Amino acid sequence: MKTLMCLYAGLLTLVVGAGTALAQPEFNQVERGRYLAVVGDCSACHTADPAKPFAGGFRIDTPFGALLGANITPDVVTGLGTWTFGDFQRAMSEGIGHRGKRLYGAMPFTAYTKMTQQDDRDLWAYLQTLQPIANNVHTNQLPFPFNIRTSLLVWNWLNFNKGEFKPDPVQSALWNRGAYLVEGPGHCGTCHTPKNTLGGDKNSQFLRGNNLGVWWAPDITNNNHTGIGQWTNDDLVNYLRTGVNRFSIASGPMAEEIENSSRHWHDADLKAVAVYLKSVNSLQPSPLALGASDSRMVAGKAIYSDNCSACHNDSGTGEPGTFPRLAGNPLIRATNPTSLAHMVLTGGGRTGSTDSRPTAPAMPSFARDLNDQQVADVLTYIRNSWGNAAQPVKAAEVARLRKNLQP
Question: Which residues are noted in the entry as heme c 2-binding (predicted)?
Answer without folding.
Answer: 188, 191-192
